[in-house]
Every structure is written in C-alpha cells, then in structure tokens.
Amino acid sequence: EMQRSLVGSEMCIRDSSSYIFAGSFAALLGITDKTSLYLKLNSSDEDLIYNRLHPEDLVEKRMLEYEFFKFVHPLSLPDKLNYKATCRIRIKDKSGRYVFVNNSTQILQPSPAGKIWLILCCYDLSPDQTLGEGIAPGIVNNCSGEIVSLSFSNKRNRLLTAREKEILMLIQEGKLSKQIADILEISIHTVNSCLLYTSPSP
Questions:
Q1: Closest Cα partner for 122 from 97, 166, 85?
Q2: Structure pTM?
Q3: Which has the closest alpha carbon to 102: 1, 176, 7?
C-alpha cells in the first residue's frame, strides 16, 4: 500500500544525486504515466518535484529544510536520526490543479565523519484538502513524542534586504540553489546562508 501511494525521494549528499521512487501517486501528480517509477537525478535538489510545488509553498519548504538542519546540527548522531521535518504543501496534479500533500524529511544515514549523507523525503496525498495559512511546518521526534511547531509568518512580515528578496523571488520561480548562484554571480554558500538567515528564530 505504501508503495502505491507514496512518492519518495532519497538525496545522497556525497554524490549530489537524488533518487525518486514512487507508485501510482506519481501518476496522479503527473510526474509519470506509469504505475511505478525509479529515477536517478544528477542533483541533490528534487527539481522533478520542486517544479510542481506552489511557489509560496516552495519557499516555505526550503525554509523548513534549513530550519530542520539547523535544529539537528548540534545533536548526537543517534538523536539526529529520530527527528523529521513535516509540512503540508500544494503540488500540481496531472490536470494542473493544486492538491495538498503531506511531506516529511528525515536523515537516514550520516557519513563516518558525522556529516549528513543520506536524506529521505516522502510525499503522500493529505486527507485535509482545505486551504490554510502557510505549510503547517513542524519538527517531530518519533521516539520521544516531542513536537516543535514552527511559524514562518514572521519571515513573511519582516523587511528583507534587496539580496534576500532577489534570492527568494528566484526560488519562487523554481530556480535551484546552483542556478540562483549562477544568475546572481554569488556562491551557493551565500544563497544557502541567506535562506538560513531569513528563516524564523525558534
């Protein structure tokens, strides 16, 4: 049942690749016309999926990812694996209509040096298809039951620098970090730092 409903994406940081695997839900989203899919992308960004996200939700999802990695960074290796980021986002289906999808992101495996190496992202049709404010971001611990609710309304309401606005506008257009760095002639580190610093404080 899980294979039929989920779209999964594994990101391997070590070789900058994404592996997309999915069942019939991918056909519902218009990602493929087949009942199953396994695909390797030469990018650690899930551009096959990101290109279908609502632009506002894409920005908030990227903010959640950076907030999540900042949250788990100081934790021990075993504790890193217990947490995942969750949200509810809008993705275009095969007819071009936005549907709400539950998304989770978690670390599957660190490198021997303790760096993040393998990440799993899951997408599944949400039973709640009603419009809400934002993507309902959170960080959860499946072992302890700890739930950290986040809000990005402060980010939306604060004044951004001209550079931050440029970067966020390019994200809304579906550009990936490397593309943004090339367009603005800045480093990927600068792009990622901007995303980190424009995310809300806990």
A1: 85
A2: 0.72
A3: 7
